[in-house]
Amino acid sequence: MSDAVGTVPRVTTTTPRRADRSARPGFRCSECGWTASKWVGRCGECQAWGTVAEDVGPGGGAPRTVATAPTRAPARPIDEIDVEAARARPTGVDELDRVLGGGIVPGAVVLLAGEPGVGKSTLLLDVAARAARTGRRVLYVTGEESAGQVRLRAGRIGALHPSLLLADETDLATVLGHVEVVDPDLLVLDSVQTIASAAVEGTAGGVAQVREVTAAVIAAAKSRDLPVVLVGHVTKDGSVAGPRTLEHLVDVVCQFEGERHSRLRLLRATKNRYGPTDEVGCFDLSETGIIGLADPSGLFVSQAQTAVPGTCLTVTLEGRRPLATEVQALVAPSAVPNPRRTTSGIDSSRLAMVLAVLQRRLGARLADQDVYVSTVGGARVVEPAADLALALAAVSSRENTALPRGLVAVGEVGLAGEIRTVSGVGRRLSEAARLGFTRAVVPAGSLDGAAPPDGLTVLPVADLAQAVAAAGIGS
After folding, report:
1. Does 237 share its domain with 356?
2. Which intervals of the chain are annotated as region Disordered (predicted)?
3. Per-residue pLDDT tens for 43-78?
């Protein structure tokens, strides 16, 4: 009797525990796919908040069987596939075509992200109007503004055309209905975070809603060979808002950048299935609209007629595009125990490092001086190739001696005072020669024996002392 009593509890208690353990739902991160046995507020892999949700799997985790379905078209040899239908169509905006790789491919989905007020809607409204003028039918769906507000902007920038159709909708089913009725040649959706589907729980802009809206729009684009441009919001750190899968689903991801107090706007492609990702488009945003800048270097160079101490020109690379930029420095005696170090458009840590190298390796007295450094035209210089121009500008201001006109400096400054070579020196010097510069201070050996551009005298230097001597500003 005691054996029976002792045996029954082991059976009745062990079996339910195993069943509960096998049926226990798991939790999965919607951003990276990380799984956990219990819910947590923050993903343990990608550290994203609020992305872990219950994932019981289809059929409660049971294996799935998929029945075969008839194919739409038989598989063909790859060399027999028609590629003409996949050729990029120009948008009419040369700077945008440069970034996209020649234009928009039929059926491609492009995500354009940027901060509020940077000019995303203005650019796309101009693109839509240019496409309508070529005979294509364009559907512009706005979920952030009313149709009247978009109409006012279109009138201000001259983007009115009968083939440009406008709708203000926030429901996904209604948007797809407009696509069915209009049958457009180009669809602009502004923005993907404002559209919601009634079949999915959650508010517009949530993880589930953004994924559902994007998947539905992509399905419509691929089935109709319809090029689509989606406007996306960004977070405080500048990344695309919403689930990370949004960037994986679309074909092209573009970032629209620009300072609020500057007219310059830069367009970069961070993902492009049809073209390069190292091209940059430059635009000028004004009250009358946005225009492409084929030669934006003039925005970053002052128009002073006489040489001024504390200014030096350099050539930076934005992707594969060289841009001439002027760096200005002002060194003045400090009236406080801790001298000021103020920058605009220059990384403050790079300035601190260059000043320390100047004082230690060159003997420049800067510890009791206020140093103010800025770029012209609101340009932002982040690459180390501008270190030499920054150093020469600081020395020029400290010695109150202007650099020779027509001088450009390119190179990275090391902690030992050496001048290191940088990438793309040939392209930088070609741009300098095109703009009329006559002398260039570059790192020694950066040309590898190649001939410099016509009309440009190259002065190779190995350290800061040689660079200062070549520029003619030494004490």
Report:
1. no
2. 1-24
3. 888 888 888 888 755 444 444 545 666 777 788 898
Predicted confidence at residue 56, as pLDDT, reads 52
61 within a domain of the structure (yes/no): no
Q: Distance of alpha carbon 261 from its chain centroid, rounded?
A: 19
Q: Examine the domain organization and report whether 146 and 36 are in the same domain.
A: no
Measured in whole angstroms, how far is the alpha carbon of residue 46 from the centre of its chain? Answer: 21
Is 238 strand, coil or helix? Answer: coil
Q: Are 231 and 124 in contact (CB under 8 A)?
A: yes
- Does 475 have pLDDT greater than 60? no
CB contact set of 338 (below 8 Å; sequence gap of 6+) = none
In a domain, 318, yes or no: yes
Report the residue count for the chain: 475
Whether 76 is covered by a domain: the verdict is no
Q: Give yes or no: residues 189 and 176 share one domain.
A: yes
Ranked by mean pLDDT, which of 184-188, 238-242, 281-285 comes out on top?
184-188
Task: Give mean pLDDT, residues 142-171.
Answer: 94
As annotated, the binding site includes: 114-121
Q: How far apart are CA 129 and CA 382, in angstroms?
A: 35
Question: Whole-prediction pTM value?
Answer: 0.75
Using the Cα atoms of residue 403, residue 404, residue 405 and residue 407 in order, give the sign of their dihedral: negative
- Tell whether 447 and 317 lie within a shared domain: yes
What token pair was written down for 228?
A: 């689509």
Total structural domains within the chain: 3
Residues contributing to the annotated binding site for ATP: 114-121
Domain that holds residue 46: 23-55
Alpha carbon distance 5, 81 (integer Å): 74
**So what's the pLDDT on residue 28?**
82
- Looking at the fold, whether 311 and 237 belong to one and the same domain comes out as no
Q: Is 402 domain-assigned?
A: yes
- Spatial separation of the C-alpha atoms in residues 48 and 29, rounded to whole Å: 9
**Neighbour count for residue 69 (Cβ, 10 Å):** 6
Contact 214, 250 (CB under 8 A): yes
The overall average pLDDT reported for the chain is 86
Shared domain for 272 and 328, answered yes or no, is no
Domain co-membership, 287 together with 330: no
Going across the sheet that includes 26-29, the strands are 35-36, 26-29, 52-55
The whole-number pLDDT of residue 432 equals: 92
Q: What is the CATH number of the domain that holds 437?
A: 3.30.230.10
> Do 279 and 317 share a structural domain?
no
User: CB–CB of 282/378 below 8 Å?
Assistant: no
- Any idea what the Cα angle at residue 193 is, between residues 188 and 199, rounded to 5°? 100
